[in-house]
Amino acid sequence: MNQTTHLPDRSARTLLTGPAPRPLVDGVLLLLRLALAVIFFAHGWDTLTNLGVAGTIDLQRESGIPLPELAGPFTVFAELIGGLLLALGALTRPAAAALTVVMLGAIAFIHAPYGIFVEDGGIELTLVLAAASLQLTVQGSGRFGIDGLLARPRTPA
Q1: What is the pTM of this model?
Q2: Is residue 12 in a domain?
Q3: Which of 5, 19, 114, 126 is the most buried (most CB within 10 A)?
């Protein structure tokens, strides 16, 4: 008796274009969240302790950012609180959306006139941070975060 075992399709086409295994996606989302959390929290902490909210408002006013009295505190606390939330994988989508807005504002009002390269003050870093934040806005925390724990189906006791 010849028994055929069904094996997953591992053709080159599937490996190049098929969906990644869910555990891999969740692991990569965790690494992305943690990397962004470190960067945003550190930047928010640095801004808060060196410029303060008032200094951030002044800097944003000088940069031509609309409504600096709202944008300044939003920026500082989006980075600080958003960084913490990303680390925990809690409220990931709204935190990442807020950080995406902050980075797009930084690109438009601060970095764009200086071109691409970060050493010239350009958009290089902020563009990557905006894109990574947008990715988390779309995909969420993945399984390895508070959001992922809350999304799991509960089994009856």
Answers
A1: 0.86
A2: no
A3: 126
Residue with tokens 């189906």: 153
Q: Per residue in 30-72, pLDDT tens?
A: 999 999 999 999 999 999 999 999 999 999 999 999 999 999 9
Query: Is residue 11 in some structural domain?
Result: no
- Cβ 50 vs Cβ 79: under 8 Å: no
Query: Do the Cβ atoms of 141 and 33 come closer than 8 Å?
Result: yes
Domain containing residue 78: 23-146
Are the CB atoms for 53 and 72 separated by under 8 Å? yes
**DSSP string of 82-133, one letter each residue:** HHHHHHHTSSHHHHHHHHHHHHHHHIIIIIGGG-S-GGGT-SHHHHHHHHHH
Within 8 A by CB and 6+ apart from 104, the residues are: 130
8-state DSSP, 63:
T
Total domains present in the chain? 1
